[in-house]
Amino acid sequence: MAEIRGNKVSFDTDHLVLTAGATSANETLMFCLAEKGDAILLPTPYYPGFDRDLKWRTGVEIVSIQCSSSNGFQITESALEAAYQEAQRKNLRVKGVLVTNPSNPLGTTMSRNELDLLVNFVTDKEIHLISDEIYSGTVFSSPAFVSIMEVLKDRKLENTQVWERVHVVYSLSKDLGLPGFRVGAIYSNDPIVVAAATKMSSFGLVSSQTQYLLSAMLSDKKFTKEYISKNHKRLQKRQNKLVSGLEKAGISCLESNAGLFCWVDMRHLLSSNTFEAEMELWKRIVYDVKLNISPGSSCHCTEPGWFRVCFANMSEDTLKLAMQRLKSFVSSITIDNQTHQDLKNMRKKNRTKWVFRLSFQSFHDREQGER
């Protein structure tokens, strides 16, 4: 964890709890920090699995922090306060804020201003902050990743109450490409949370064989350093190919620097500015183009027309073919739309002529009658 973060922060192993993946870590924290009917605030768009991980067995409610494309979906003070007030109107007790940094599905790192804003907010409200940092090792370009622990230490908050209210979730699934190994972790400076999470981890243990294997792998510092460096280069190369291919098809993306996916803007391809039109477009891409992408509505995005497109789970040849298919599809939509527009213009032109002739005939008849 420290190496991924450039050794800017250190982690005390006594504050670390291993879990069967990040899914188990997030659910465990919900059981530790909240009661049934309490609320956790999440900025939109967010990972769809949180609806399952945070709610199903805990009874915790999610209240969205509404973010928009106008500022690149960054968190604002007004959005935080609006979400908090919305929870209060629903008679929900807010127990904390959960963020993913880097973001899934945006593929962006949070700015230090956003992190400072979050620390100030949870301090003022006396609630918890969970920073899900499972994509921290996938940051392939600037700006660099900043962990919430780094912000706390830079602000010298070690001896304050907020120090024990900030918790980090980590996993090896994304950074080392080991999702099937189910190795996650909770890091907390609150000894009560650590104790409770340790007891709960009995229901989702990491096997001894897995621990032994990964211990041997991660102790090889030369390997881990080379792997992380090479992985960053490969991710950046693949992301560049996706962005370039989409641009050739007339599609843009939110500027990103991390993760295994891009947040793609297809609003101009919608038949109308509605989520129904988004689902219609998604179905055409899945069933006709044969590409599996995620609609923004599944990530609770407040604006129709955004899609998450993964680029790291396929070969370069497959990605090239996918971009060719998408380009052909967009061209066919453009032709269809142009044909439809031409027909509309023709009907409008003919209707104008018909109205003119009718009006002229009516005027002529009146003239004849008056004579």
TrEMBL record:
Question: What Gene Ontology molecular-function terms does this entry list?
Answer: 1-aminocyclopropane-1-carboxylate synthase activity; pyridoxal phosphate binding; transaminase activity
Pathway note: Alkene biosynthesis; ethylene biosynthesis via S-adenosyl-L-methionine; ethylene from S-adenosyl-L-methionine: step 1/2
Q: GO biological process: what's one of them?
A: fruit ripening
Q: What is this protein called?
A: 1-aminocyclopropane-1-carboxylate synthase
Family (UniProt): Belongs to the class-I pyridoxal-phosphate-dependent aminotransferase family.
Catalytically driven reaction(s): S-adenosyl-L-methionine = 1-aminocyclopropane-1-carboxylate + S-methyl-5'-thioadenosine + H(+)
Cofactor(s) needed for function: pyridoxal 5'-phosphate
Any Pfam family the entry gives? Aminotran_1_2
What species was this sequence derived from?
Gossypium tomentosum
Task: Look up the domain of life of the source.
Answer: Eukaryota
Q: Which keywords describe this protein according to UniProt?
A: Ethylene biosynthesis, Fruit ripening, Lyase, Pyridoxal phosphate, S-adenosyl-L-methionine
Q: What is its EC number?
A: 4.4.1.14
Q: Which InterPro entries match?
A: Aminotransferase_I/II_large, Ethylene_sulfur-biosynth, NHTrfase_class1_PyrdxlP-BS, PyrdxlP-dep_Trfase, PyrdxlP-dep_Trfase_major, PyrdxlP-dep_Trfase_small
Occurrences of domain Aminotransferase class I/classII large (ranges): 5-326
